[in-house]
């Protein structure tokens, strides 16, 4: 018989965050950079070769609902590839006459503004997910979270790299350090009974405890399954009539 050794590794999470105004500016600049790197020809090619060819007009399903494409549908449907080239040439011209400002560019800028807005919203959801996942004091074991502010990249070594190395070295060598982890968030719903079980007939899943069941009921997956089943029920009613 061979003895198996189990090592309990010490774990921690380093959360690199940015202040909201800094993050939003970076996200906007990233969208502008995507345009400079050829975003318009890329989405035009996808639209011409896939959407129009296959008559795919449902922008609420599959890849068509992804961020970075559906926001440009108003422009793509109204203007052609030739207009894309006209806009690109206009933007490349450093001495462009404002009287020659293409009307199509106004609509394109509106689409870009929508993309920036949606990107900011998605970023906020990501931060919220991280906090709910790691900081809400659930029954499962969660490693300590150390936050480092990356809002000033010019001071990266001082405010990010060096502190991160200090935290990791302290964990590896089991040494004390001055950095404190983020405090866990106490969710009042955790006081709900864990002695009961609930079966979601919509999703056909079993949940142990009131807290986990309530999280499921309010989650997007449950809502999508519920909406899908209601849609099917309406179709069946129409057929029967």
From TrEMBL:
PROSITE patterns: ZINC_FINGER_C2H2_1 (PS00028). The keyword RNA-binding does not apply. Residues 200-222 form the C2H2-type domain. SUPFAM superfamilies: beta-beta-alpha zinc fingers (SSF57667). GO terms for cellular component: mitochondrion. Keywords: ATP-binding, Metal-binding, Nucleotide-binding, Transferase, Zinc, Zinc-finger. GO terms for molecular function: ATP binding; nucleic acid binding; tRNA dimethylallyltransferase activity; zinc ion binding. GO terms for biological process: tRNA modification. Belongs to the IPP transferase family. PANTHER family: TRNA DIMETHYLALLYLTRANSFERASE (PTHR11088). This is CSON002889 protein. The gene is CSON002889.
């Amino acid at each position: 018989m061979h003895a198996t050794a189990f090592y309990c590794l010490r774990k921690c999470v380093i959360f690199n965050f940015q202040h909201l105004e800094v993050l939003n500016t970076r996200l906007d600049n990233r969208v502008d950079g995507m345009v400079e790197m050829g975003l318009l020809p890329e989405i035009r090619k996808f639209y011409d070769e896939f959407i129009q060819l296959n008559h795919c007009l449902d922008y609420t399903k599959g890849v068509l609902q992804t961020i970075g494409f559906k926001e440009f549908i108003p422009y793509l449907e109204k203007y052609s590839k030739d207009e894309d080239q006209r806009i690109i040439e206009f933007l490349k011209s450093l001495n462009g006459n404002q009287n020659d400002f293409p009307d199509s560019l106004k609509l394109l800028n509106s689409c870009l503004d929508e993309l920036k807005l949606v990107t900011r919203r998605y970023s906020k959801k990501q931060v919220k997910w991280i906090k709910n996942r790691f900081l809400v004091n659930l029954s499962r074991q969660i490693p300590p979270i150390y936050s480092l502010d990356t809002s000033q990249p010019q001071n990266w070594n001082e405010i990010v790299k060096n502190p991160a190395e200090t935290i990791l070295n302290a964990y590896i060598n089991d040494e004390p350090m001055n950095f404190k982890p983020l405090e866990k968030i106490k969710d009042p719903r955790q006081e709900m009974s864990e002695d009961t079980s609930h079966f979601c007939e919509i999703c056909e899943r079993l949940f142990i405890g009131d807290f986990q069941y309530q999280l499921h009921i309010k989650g997007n997956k449950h809502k999508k399954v519920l909406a899908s089943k209601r849609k099917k029920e309406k179709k069946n009613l129409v057929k029967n009539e």
